[in-house]
Design brief:
elongated
Length: 249
């Protein structure tokens, strides 16, 4: 099968080749950590929450609440992990982007190929987490597209930023001051309705909150999808421009 009509497949192939050699090491952070959270919070803390019959859970169990939330949160982390450090390193002198750009591939092909691999990893890792949640009836199979969309919603604009930045400290700051607060305050661990009015409004505009609600299948599904698609639609052309500027400079 030839791939000359879609050069981005070659960049996908590079990351796939690397993943085949390193997948055991990445399984811990991508899959094991969220599953440990599900076990500790869903079955441990969840028993205490369920005993109080919280009205915010609308009659459901805490495990059924937190399971899809952790699925979405881990998808966001996947988007950050794949769209930050690997992009920054690849764009530096000696990185694989610099080698790829000497081939017939355009910078936009490199960007697209890496995003395709991110979508692949998000699908694979989210499916593994979701499989466990399904065993405990803590999620629906329909949560998988929501998790992948969440990962791409974060990875696309973050990649555009990472390829342009000159210091890894900026990516660390992004994780510390944006990703981590979103992780905690986006309805992942507790319902947003419990927060005071102003904070609740901030949560409702959080992309992760939309991803979390989408994985739970609750609220206006179309709105959740449109918010995450907007991040991709805005981030993709920004990424194409940023990759072109960085890799042709």
């Amino acid at each position: 099968m030839t791939t000359t009509g879609f050069p981005a497949v070659h960049e996908f192939g590079y990351w796939w080749h690397r993943y085949r050699r390193t997948w055991r090491g990445t399984a811990v952070i991508s899959i094991a950590n969220p599953l440990l959270f599900v076990t500790a919070l869903g079955f441990g803390l969840g028993r205490l929450v369920d005993e109080r019959n919280s009205a915010y859970l609308h009659g459901g169990s805490y495990l059924a609440f937190i399971g899809p939330g952790l699925l979405a949160a881990s998808a966001m982390q996947m988007g950050f992990i794949h769209g930050s450090g690997p992009v920054f390193q690849s764009a530096r002198i000696g990185g694989n982007y610099r080698a790829a750009v000497t081939t017939p591939m355009e910078p936009s092909d490199i960007f697209t190929g890496h995003l395709l691999f991110t979508a692949f990893r998000a699908t694979l890792d989210s499916a593994a987490i979701l499989l466990v949640l399904l065993v405990f009836r803590a999620a629906s199979p329909a949560a998988l597209p929501g998790a992948v969309l969440t990962a791409l919603g974060f990875a696309t604009p973050i990649s555009a930023y990472a390829v342009s930045t000159d210091r890894p400290a900026k990516l660390s700051a992004l994780f510390r001051f944006v990703i981590m607060p979103l992780y905690v305050f986006s309805g992942t661990f507790f319902p947003a309705e419990q927060l005071p009015g102003p904070l609740r409004t901030l949560v409702w505009i959080s992309p992760l909150w939309h991803g979390t609600e989408l994985c739970r299948g609750s609220g206006p599904i179309v709105v959740h999808v449109l918010v995450l698609l907007a991040l991709i639609v805005i981030g993709y052309p920004a990424g194409r421009r940023a990759y072109t500027r960085r890799l042709t400079a």
